[in-house]
Design a protein that fits this description.
Layout (H helix, E strand, L loop, with lengths): L1 H22 L2 E7 L12 H9 L4 E7 L2 H9 L7 E2 L3 H9 L3 E2 L17 H8 L14 E13 L24 E4 L2 H12 L1 H5 L5 H6 L3 H13 L4 E5 L2 H7 L5 E5 H13 L5 E3 L5 E11 L5 H11 L2 H11 L2 E2 L4 H7 L11 H4 L16 H4 L2 E3 L7 H13 L4 H40 L1
Parallel strand pairs: 1-2, 1-3, 6-7, 6-8, 10-12
Antiparallel strand pairs: 4-10, 5-8, 5-9, 5-10, 5-11
Helix pairs in contact: 6-9, 9-17, 10-11
Length: 442
C-alpha cells in the first residue's frame, strides 16, 4: 500500500512538473477585445521570439470587457496572466496595491523599442505613481494606446459653436438627443473642468489638480451639472452610441476619440457626416498600458512581448486595425501621421519633438498642442469611489424626462389593457365551454 501511495505521489509530481515546464513556454495575454492586429502582429510573435531568444513560446490570448473584471482576476483570483493591458486609473491602483512586477528591459542584442514611447506619454504615466512613493512608473508599465474624450456630433443637427463648450450638455436645444458614456470616471473628469471653469480661469486651481483630487464639493458640482442635463440625455452607453451616430439616429455623443474616428469613417460610407471636437474648458487624456502582474509566470516572454509591441511597424499595424493611437513617437510613426490631403496643420511637438510643429495630421488622433495643454490625466477615485458611485446612481436613477415618463405610462396602460382583455376573453371562453357542457348533460 505504501509503495502504491509513493508511486501515485511521484506520478502526480511528475505531471505537475511537466505542466509547469509547459507553462514556462506559454505566454498568457489578457487584453481588451478587438485591441490588437491578430494575424499580422499577435500571431507572428512566437516566430519573432524564437529568432530573438532561440526559445519556443505558445500564446494563450483572452479578452476582458471592463477594467474591473480584469483586476478581479488578478486581485482575488490570483490568475497567472503574464501580460495585461489596463487603463491608467487601474495601473495607478495596481501600483498602489503592489500587484505589478518590474519589466525586464535587458533584451540582449534585441533593441529596446520601449525607448520609443513619446516623452509626453512617459510624463503622463509618471503621474500614476502612488502619492508619497518614489516609484518610477516606466519600470512597471509601458504605454500602448492613448486618446481624448470629446463630442462626436452630426453637423446637420448640431451647431458646432455650441459644442465648443461642455455647456452643450445642458442646452435645451438638444433635449433627448445626447448619448453619454456610462463611465463615471470619464464623465466626471471632463465635467469637473466645466463646473470649475471660472476657478481655472482665475488661476485658483489647475486642471490636473481638479481631476487628480476628488472632494465632496467637486463631486456635488458635477452632479448638479448632470442633473440639469437629464432631460437632454437620451441614454447611457458604453459601445452602442457610436453606432447610433453612424445611422444618423443620434445628434451628439460624449465619446472617446478612437470610437469617434471609427464612427466618422463608418458614417462616411453611408453618406452621413460626423465630426469630433474637444470643448474649450478642456478634457481628459487617457492611456492604456502593458503590465506584468504579480502572479505572472513567464516574465521573460512577457517582457519581450511588450518590447515587440513597441516596434514601429507593429504600432502602425495595430493603429490601422483598431483605430486608436499608439504612444510610439518614432520617425516612422510621424511619417504615418502626416497626411498631405489634410489642409490644416497641427503642432505635435509635444509628441514627436520640435520637428513636428506643423504636421498635416488628423486631429481626432493627434490634437494640437493648444488642445493638449487643456487636457488632464484621469485618475483612480481612491477613497471617493463609493461617493462617486452613489452620485452616478442618483444621476442615472433620476434620468427620466417627462417624455420618457409619458412613454412608460403609456406602456403600462397598454399592458394593463392587454391583461384585462385577455382575462375577459379567457372568462368568456370558460363560460361558453360551461354552457356547452350543461347542454350536453341535458
Amino acid at each position: 500500500m505504501k509503495k502504491l501511495f509513493v508511486s501515485l505521489f511521484v506520478a502526480a509530481l511528475s505531471l505537475s512538473m511537466s505542466a509547469f515546464a509547459d507553462r514556462q513556454h506559454t505566454l498568457k495575454i489578457y487584453n481588451w477585445a478587438d485591441y490588437i492586429d491578430m494575424p499580422n502582429v499577435l500571431d507572428k510573435f512566437p516566430e519573432w521570439y524564437k529568432e530573438q531568444t532561440g526559445e519556443d513560446v505558445q500564446i494563450i490570448y483572452q479578452t476582458f470587457d471592463i477594467n474591473e473584471s480584469m483586476l478581479t482576476q488578478i486581485e482575488i483570483g490570483k490568475e497567472d496572466y503574464d501580460v495585461i493591458c489596463p487603463s491608467e486609473y487601474i495601473i495607478e491602483r495596481m501600483l498602489a496595491q503592489g500587484l505589478l512586477q518590474p519589466i525586464n528591459k535587458d533584451f540582449g542584442s534585441t533593441p529596446d523599442y520601449t525607448q520609443l514611447v513619446a516623452p509626453f506619454a512617459q510624463e503622463k504615466f509618471q503621474q500614476m505613481a502612488p502619492q508619497g512613493s518614489d516609484i518610477r512608473v516606466s519600470d512597471y508599465t509601458v504605454g500602448y494606446m492613448w486618446g481624448t474624450t470629446g463630442w462626436l456630433f452630426n453637423p446637420m443637427h448640431v451647431d458646432e459653436q455650441d459644442l465648443r463648450s461642455w455647456a452643450a450638455l445642458v442646452n435645451p436645444k438638444y433635449e433627448g438627443h445626447i448619448f453619454v458614456k456610462d463611465a463615471f470616471r470619464d464623465v466626471y473628469s471632463v465635467l469637473v473642468l466645466y463646473a470649475f471653469r471660472e476657478e481655472i480661469e482665475r488661476g485658483e486651481v489647475t486642471r490636473d489638480e481638479l481631476v487628480a483630487h476628488l472632494t465632496p464639493e467637486r463631486i456635488a458640482r458635477v452632479e448638479e451639472v448632470l442633473m440639469k442635463a437629464k432631460d437632454n440625455i437620451a441614454g447611457w452607453e458604453v459601445d452602442f452610441g457610436k453606432e447610433e451616430m453612424t445611422k444618423g439616429k443620434a445628434w451628439m455623443n460624449l465619446s472617446w476619440s478612437g470610437d469617434a474616428q471609427w464612427a466618422i469613417d463608418e458614417a462616411a460610407e453611408v453618406g452621413v457626416e460626423l465630426k469630433y471636437i474637444i470643448p474649450k474648458e478642456g478634457s481628459n487624456v487617457w492611456f492604456d498600458g502593458w503590465c506584468i502582474p504579480k502572479y505572472a509566470v513567464n516574465t521573460k516572454a512577457a517582457s519581450y512581448f511588450i518590447n515587440y509591441m513597441c516596434m514601429p511597424q507593429n504600432a502602425i499595424l495595430n493603429m490601422e486595425e483598431i483605430g486608436y493611437v499608439s504612444v510610439i513617437a518614432s520617425p516612422e510613426i510621424l511619417e504615418w501621421a502626416n497626411d498631405e490631403d489634410i489642409e490644416e496643420t497641427a503642432d505635435l511637438s509635444y509628441f514627436f519633438g520640435e520637428e513636428a510643429t506643423e504636421v498635416h495630421a488628423n486631429q481626432v488622433f493627434y490634437p494640437d498642442l493648444s488642445i493638449i495643454r487643456r487636457c488632464a490625466l484621469m485618475h483612480d477615485c481612491g477613497e471617493q469611489t463609493k461617493e462617486m458611485l452613489a452620485m452616478w446612481n442618483r444621476v442615472k436613477g433620476d434620468n427620466l424626462s417627462w417624455t420618457m415618463i409619458g412613454i412608460i405610462i403609456l406602456l403600462l396602460v397598454a399592458i394593463l389593457v392587454w391583461a384585462i382583455t385577455s382575462a375577459l376573453s379567457r372568462r368568456k371562453q370558460r363560460n361558453m365551454q360551461f354552457k356547452k357542457f350543461q347542454n350536453r348533460k341535458k
